[in-house]
Design a protein that fits this description.
240 residues; alpha+beta; 10-stranded mixed beta sheet
C-alpha cells in the first residue's frame, strides 16, 4: 500500500508541502487517485442514477482497477453548509466533507465500493489535516439503504423525507428550487423561470438515510444526532 504524490519532495520542502501534493493511494492493482473535474462530471452524468453532479464538489477521484477507470467518487460541501453545525457543533468547512456522488461499474469486483471509499478517505485525511468527519446520504432510489456505508464503518443517524421535483427527466432537490443561491444555478441550467419548473414538475418525497464517518473519534460523543441501528432493506420495505 502506498500514497502517490505529484513529484518528489525536495530538500527544502516540509511534510505539509508534500501532503498538499498527494493525489492517490494504491495497493497492487487497485488505485484511487484524483481525476479531472470535467471528466469526473461527465462520467457521473452518464452513469450515476441521478444523472447530475453537485456543483459544490471539490475533490474528484477516479477508481482504477488493473489501470482501467471503473468508478468515480466526488466529495464536497453540503447543499446547505450551515446545517453542519446542527450535527457537530463548531464544525467548519475545513473539518467536513460530504461524499455526494459515487458510481462504480458493474465490472468492478465485489467490495470495490467500500475499498474505494476507504482509499479516498485515506487521501483526504492525509491531504487535509483539519478534516474530522465525512457525511453521506443513501437515497431510497438505490434500493439498498446505504449497505456500502455500513460495510465501510460509517455510523447511521436515521432517515428523513426530502422533497424532490422531477422535471424534463431529471430529479431536483427542493433546495435547487427554493434557495436563492441554488435557484440561480437552476435558472441558468434550464434557461427557464423557476415557477415554470415548479408548475411542470412531478413532486415526490423520498427517504434519505444519513451516514457519518468520524476521522476524529472524539466527535462521536459531540454529535447532536441520535445514532441508530443500521437499516436493512428486507425489514425496511416490509414496514413500508
Amino acid at each position: 500500500m502506498t500514497f502517490l504524490y505529484k513529484d518528489q519532495l525536495s530538500l527544502f520542502e516540509s511534510n505539509d508541502d508534500l501532503n498538499s501534493r498527494i493525489y492517490g493511494y494504491k495497493k497492487k492493482d487497485f488505485e484511487v487517485k484524483y481525476l479531472d473535474r470535467i471528466e469526473a462530471n461527465m462520467i457521473i452524468r452518464r452513469n450515476h442514477y441521478s444523472h447530475k453532479v453537485v456543483m459544490a464538489s471539490t475533490d474528484h477521484f477516479g477508481v482504477y482497477i488493473n489501470n482501467v477507470l471503473l468508478g468515480v467518487l466526488q466529495y464536497g460541501h453540503a447543499l446547505n453548509p450551515k446545517s453542519i453545525s446542527n450535527i457537530i457543533p463548531d464544525s467548519t468547512f475545513d473539518n467536513f466533507r460530504e461524499l455526494n456522488r459515487m458510481w462504480l461499474s458493474d465490472e468492478a469486483p465485489k467490495n470495490s465500493e467500500s475499498r474505494a471509499i476507504s482509499y479516498s478517505i485515506k487521501i483526504l485525511k492525509k491531504k487535509y489535516k483539519d478534516l474530522k468527519w465525512i457525511q453521506s446520504f443513501a437515497d431510497e432510489r438505490c434500493g439498498k439503504l446505504g449497505v456500502v456505508y455500513q460495510a465501510s464503518n460509517f455510523r447511521y443517524y436515521g432517515r428523513h423525507l426530502s422533497q424532490f421535483y422531477e422535471y424534463n427527466g431529471e430529479v431536483l432537490h427542493k433546495l435547487m428550487l427554493t434557495s436563492p443561491k441554488h435557484m440561480e444555478i437552476t435558472r441558468k441550467r434550464f434557461k427557464v423561470d423557476i415557477q415554470k419548473i415548479l408548475e411542470n414538475s412531478n413532486k415526490m418525497s423520498l427517504w434519505q438515510f444519513r451516514y457519518i464517518y468520524f476521522l476524529d473519534q472524539r466527535l462521536v460523543s459531540q454529535c447532536l444526532l441520535e445514532e441508530k441501528p443500521y437499516p436493512k432493506p428486507k425489514t425496511f420495505y416490509q414496514q413500508k
